[in-house]
């Protein structure tokens, strides 16, 4: 996705806020902030910048500051605990719904989990997502019927690109449904140290989410990657990607990156647009803050 003018301020605001959270001295914070701003000014272009790569490169600089990763570890732990406290309520609510409505409800829960994002300027959210909120939320783009027809008969090998840590707990309910239909699920988490509050292998093991999937993998990304940058992931991951039938991609970063390439697979994007540029790319600024369940089919095979 090509950047827009608002993206410059959003990226800079997020990175400067992280520097403020660090334990650097005031003088060291200024030095690092200047490095970040210099790289951003040099690398940002409305014509050629790929947003997820630029954000990843700048975060790579930010995490050199002591305290930044500690801040995100605390954020992730708290988010997962809050979500775990509510997971059974969602599971119980879904149990009484018919098959399609159950899937539709779990897609909404998964999308609402994407609200838990500490890396977007001017984004405020409530992590307490209860069944009443999920049942009544309005979906901006809803391809759940098409998705249901794909997965209901089972037999698919599905790659699930996870995003934020608390969000991943809510995603686990959707994974349970998909496996219950006889599909195989492969969860993809970020390589350590992760990107912002995105979930890593250590995070999912900590709360037992690794047991929800048939398999959990990392992309083997060289340096920090906010998405599955194909020029940086491992050969094994590329091979695995080629072997799957369907991809579920959570969050805005995966949407920004994957919609610019033809990955050769159907991709279900589940997220909430948290800014006007993303909303406009989907068709309307009125989509901002509303769940998106958007199924894209490939133009070709990888």
From TrEMBL:
It holds the Pfam family ARMT1-like_dom. It comes from the Archaea. Residues 5-283 form the Damage-control phosphatase ARMT1-like metal-binding domain. This is Damage-control phosphatase ARMT1-like metal-binding domain-containing protein. It comes from Desulfurococcus amylolyticus DSM 16532.
